[in-house]
Design goal:
With about 500 residues, the protein is α/β, with parallel strands linked by helices. Helices cover about 25% and strands about 15% of the residues. It has 3 domains: about 5-105 and about 175-430, TIM Barrel; about 115-160, Oligo-1,6-glucosidase, domain 2; about 435-505, Golgi alpha-mannosidase II (Immunoglobulin-like, Sandwich). The strands form 4 sheets. An 8-stranded parallel beta barrel has the order 1-2-3-7-8-9-10-11.
Amino acid sequence: MSATTDDRAWWQRGVVYQIYPRSFADGSGDGIGDLSGVLAHLDHLRWLGVDALWLSPIFPSPMADFGYDVANYTDVDPVFGTLEHFDTLLDAADRRGLRVLLDWVGNHTSDRHPWFMASRGSRDNPYRDWYIWRDEPNNWRRAFDDGPAWTLDARTGQYYLHHFLPQQPDLNWNNPAVRQAMHDVLRFWLDRGVDGFRADVVHLIGKDPDLPDDPDDRVGSRVGWHTDSRTYEWLREIREVLDGYPGDRVMVGEINVPDPVEVSAHTGEDQLHLAFYFALTRAPWDAGAFRSAIAGIEAATLARDVWPGLVLSNHDQSRHRTRYGGEERRARVAATVLLTLRGTPFLYAGEELGLEDATVPADQQVDPGGRDPQRAPIPWTPDPGHGWEGTPWLPWPPEPDRRNAASQRRDTGSIAGLYRRLLHLRRDDATLHAGALELRDAPDGLLAYDRVGASGLRRVLANFTDEPAAVPDDGRWQVLLSTARARDGEAFDGTLPGTTAVVLAPAD
């Protein structure tokens, strides 16, 4: 990935905005977000300054895992609309200069998918080998509740594997017919014009063929989740499918393991274009922890000459403002760090509004993984309905009368205004979207790094403490952007107020 700035693909220069469709905006009035709702708010994304949107699954599904249990890969669930609605959205996004990515769930299907319904019909069914069956289960554990990763099918007397819910049986990627069918799914959407995919838990598609028991010290830990080296071969086949299309189509992998070196092994010239590095989502509010996370990502990606995907929040993670104690000042500093690092930032819808997790009463909780709080609906207006005609499927996040898109867009000093300034600065500044990154020594509580590139030197300073920090003097600097907007354009005086971040350039 050593291309010059001008040669970089759009997904290296740009920023992607994740939309969880059920919670983004409701165009039908039934209280569940849909494609018409997304269409109605594309101009918000354009105002903000992102380059692409990623839609969490919109395929037909029984919704045991809210779309990550796919029953048909080549259609749209009626709760979200129709294929015609999707085509309209795709065209409208293209007219606004926005790329569109879909969430592709390749590791497993729904137990209602016709492939699995045929597979469980009998042991000699042609689809039997499309899934992973065994006479006796091993000791693998599943996500969500740490129960067994195997379920007995009474009709045929064998167990099937599911790393997630029993309603999500794992596909057998060792079967060439499965791989061909999944390639055809990708081609179906690529032919319609999508710009790429986010690949759900794609590191799991290759299982150890011997299906061995986990060692005693790993039972329930799911470290690596039983992956096999054939995964890399199958990622190359997936890459060949995308490379057969023009326009820099991209495959973004969810490789949910803690080791950035292991994550980077799945990316490169002939595998995934980029993958998510979740180190920042695991870091506490501490400058040293952030520095360590950034250093790990940098070392792993530079060693393989690959490009990282960076994230603070998503539909599976508690919102970062909540994780950082609910302080907006901290959320502003975190946004500045995310949008000035080397890599492709992914923003989760609502983080630009400074949203926190919602409080969801027990009788309204619906997600098997307990992720309802971060999936609360997006408030669009200050009125009681907040831009939704029907009662939303989940409660509102805190302060929707103030933390809504309409109110924040009118206030240039809001956190939404900060995100817009950051996004436009990043887009216009070649050093910030393509330059090298050099971590700097700094006093305790302060994170400091330089970006070095075509538009010159840029320095980022982030104070993680509540007290002012004196920065060692090594020249004259001008503030390009501050989380306290009053400082934009001023000369930097060498002191950074508590819980503040700045982007600096050398003064003329």
